[in-house]
Task: structure prediction
Amino acid sequence: MKNIIKLLDSKYPTFNEWRAQNPEQKIDLSHADLSGMNLSGKHLMNVNLSNADLSNTICVSTIFCRANLENVNFTNADLSNASFGPIMKTDSGIGNSILGLHLFYAAQLPNANFENANMYLTNFMECDMNGAILTGAKTENTNFKRAYWSGVLLAETD
Result:
């Protein structure tokens, strides 16, 4: 895991070049502390990030497609233009994050915390939002078409 984290922490092309040369390599970053890292542009497809700490990360244009994001902490992360869909189950804390132009198509997001998140132009089409917290979230032009909404907290959203 330490070698992968070093690659992630390196300049942009290094991790993505390694990933292109090792597409079948299983990457397990479960429980990893990636807080504060700049992961912009990284290709994290199929990576196990369950229970990882991605708080305060910069993930602009990062690709999380088919990643395991169960219980990931995205608090205060910048997720602008990142791609998440389709993804595996998540119980992620995404509070105070910028989510504009994201695709969460058919994602499992039960109990996800989107408190104060900027969700402008984010697509949650056909997502399981059961128990999600959207208190204070900016939801202008957000697509929730055919999303499952049981027990969602929507206080103070716009």
